[in-house]
Amino acid sequence: MNQPTEPKADKSGVRRHNLSLVLRTVHEAGETTRAAVAARVGLTRPAVSSLVEQLLDLGLLMESGKTFSGQAGRPGTVLKPADTGPAGLGVEINVAYVTACVVDLTGTDRVRHTEHLDNRAAGAGEVLARAARIAAGALVEAAGLGLVPAGAGLALPGLVSGGTVRQAPNLGWNDVPAERLFADALAALRPATAGLPVASDNEANSAALAELWFGSLGEVRTFLHLTGEIGVGGAIVVHGELLRGAHGFAGEIGHTVVDAEGPRCRCGSRGCLEQYAGQAALLASAGAAGVPDLARRA
Fold it and tell me: Which long-range contacts (CB under 8 A, 24 or more apart) does 30-35 make?
């Protein structure tokens, strides 16, 4: 009986994989050479050179001087991620502020704009339009640095799935199509961003992934990340993977009930953790009028 065979990867698929492999290797090294990349990924030097040339043409890598190994042979040309060209746009919407930043391929935060304001006083559409305005301003500045957005990521409070904020009690949002509203508002301000890929996630999930990829955790690949401002959030990373749970909301501990007879929460329940560990509860316990008042006492 004939056994089914695995489908063979086409040449373009293999090349895309190898391009990604080389780009990731250079990114992780910061600075390296073609020879070092070849030794690291297990490809031949000619194959790596061909891939590097394509990445240079795409503006994803740049060359920077020569490096001498101390051994016989020609010096190698230093490769590193490009600090112009493709970049990422990040936008965080919090209860008390909106931040937009533009990050280049080296992972450097090149532009950051923040506006502090109470987003509870506005509707979801107004807040997302405000976020788009702040993001557009950041993109104008980034363009002057030679950076072009390749995609945008929204870090949002509450329960987020499928581009929609299912519930954000502290903002009073329910079933808000955040990705679509933000993308439409940004395209209206900067038509060149029409069609820009936009992804979204809970802000604690985004922060946990940032710690995993760019933080100082070293070899730690399993951890619990907690966030605490006006609300309380959390994210769980297990063996280098974000644990989302059956419904995508694992780690969302802010509205876990710790006392069924406790104070009423904005989510409709009683005694949620946020009612004891959130900013308002902590300020009340300290008898402080606000965070600046508390900071003055420190």
Answer: 30/80, 30/81, 30/106, 31/64, 31/78, 31/79, 31/80, 32/78, 32/79, 32/80, 33/67, 33/76, 33/77, 33/78, 33/79, 34/76, 34/77, 34/79, 35/76
